[in-house]
Amino acid sequence: MRLGALLGFGRAERLIHTVDEAIEAVAEALPGFAAFDAAIGDDGRAALTIDATGRLALVVARGARVRAREVDWPMLRLIDGGVLIETRDRRLGAVVLNRLTAIDIRRLGMPPLPQREAAEIVPEPAAA
């Protein structure tokens, strides 16, 4: 939290905690990008969103503002501790989505798995 926010001046630092918050943030910062799913970094400072056509947008929360930029799949790279996105944008720089894995990125945009009933173990009948 910044000093001004601690003293009651200005707005508190904005973080992204849910998929809905990430979708709202990208709609606010990048008009025309209709995201429907997101992968959020562990610290809540950045999220990667996807639209129905497979385009990606990175959303970064800095202070009370959010910035967004459309990114391409080759800009993503797996590193120790997360996923690095090299934006090639001076304002955003390289962004790390902490504690995300390649599996998290592969699941981005996929429908949730159907819930199955719990398995029931049935003992075998005794041999005669």
Please tell me about this protein's structure:
The mean pLDDT is 88. With 128 residues, the protein is of the alpha+beta class. It has a 4-stranded antiparallel beta sheet with strand order 1-2-3-4, with helices on one face. The longest helix is centred in the N-terminal third of the chain and has 11 residues, at 19-29. The radius of gyration is 20 Å and the shape is elongated. The protein has 3 helices and 7 strands.
Defining traits:
128 residues, four-stranded antiparallel β-sheet, three-stranded antiparallel β-sheet, 31% strand, alpha+beta
Q: Major beta sheet, specifics?
A: 4 strands, antiparallel
Mean pLDDT value: 88
Low-pLDDT parts are none
- What shape does the CA trace take? elongated
Radius of gyration: 20 Å
The amount of helix comes to 10-25%
Structural class estimated from helices and strands: alpha+beta
What would you call the quaternary organization?
single chain
Report the strand count: 7
At a glance:
16% of the residues lie in helices and 31% in strands.
List the helices and strands and how they pair.
Elements: H1 3-6, H2 19-29, E1 35-40, E2 46-51, E3 56-62, E4 65-71, E5 76-79, E6 82-86, E7 94-98, H3 102-107
Antiparallel strand pairs: 1-2, 2-3, 3-4, 5-6, 6-7
